[in-house]
Amino acid sequence: MAIRFEDIKEHIGSRVIWGDRTELFTPEAAQAIRAKVEERTVLVFPEVHLSDEEQLAITEAMGEKVRLTARNNVQSTDQDVYQVTLDEKINPQPEYVLGTFFWHMDGITVDMPPPFATLLSCRIAPDKGGETEFASTYAAYEGLSEEEKQALEGLTAVHSVRASLSPIADAIPEKHREKVLGIGLVKEHPLVWTHESGRKSMVIGTTADHIVGMEVPAGRAMLIRLQEWAAQPAFSLRHKWTKGDFVIWDNTGAMHRAIPYDKSTGRMMHRTSIAGTEAVAA
């Protein structure tokens, strides 16, 4: 197999290098890519210029695809490929995209295992802002002291859509604010996820509202400190998009967020997701 990987930073991120583009679509490549995503959290394919059909082919070769699309989008494209955009002709209700300006993990408040991976391709790159940042919650957990790890054991956080959108709640039109904030389940997850592999990561981000059994101010302060710890340069990576870039990340071991951008930039991303195979477990 001719594809190879170059590490971007010590604890997170690899760049995928290939010769013949067809090498990306073989079963051997899918297996190697999935293994590298699990190892390095984020993979970057520079300027590969995938079509929707090719992105879906890679998605399905790596695992079962799962549809995590906004019900409000008006798309002429394949519904298994979600268009991430602030273009009001496609996305007349942009609150969920605006909510991605804050650290989060996908699918944490839905009634199924969180998606294993998210796959994002850049169709229109913004000229200002719009980069995507990733923070490894595997590396962040591993970087804690033993005393800090022990303090997190057994703790459970409560997650909700309302919490994830609280930073932009005042910007949601009042006529449908409660409807938007009320969507989704309220889920409890262990703060520390012990994966079937034996590795541990943290389940954190803006969906996490408070910690069961702790005073709300103290619990929220802890959640913010953990976000800040995971987002430090040693454990995080910022990707500046160029048209045609394609990125895959391990959603079960990373937070991500978009750097704010104006809708006038036309930023357009196409997203697919790979179903998770394990529920969050302590």
TrEMBL record:
Stored InterPro entries: TauD-like_sf, TauD/TfdA-like, TfdA_dioxygenase
SUPFAM superfamilies in UniProt: Clavaminate synthase-like
Boundaries of every TauD/TfdA-like domain copy: 6-272
Keywords for the protein's UniProt record, in alphabetical order: Dioxygenase, Iron, Metal-binding, Oxidoreductase
Leader peptide range in chain numbering: none
Keyword Metal-binding (UniProt): yes
Keyword Glycoprotein set for record: no
Pfam families with a match to the protein in the record: TauD
GO molecular function, one term: dioxygenase activity
Family: Belongs to the TfdA dioxygenase family.
Name recorded for this polypeptide: Taurine dioxygenase, alpha-ketoglutarate-dependent
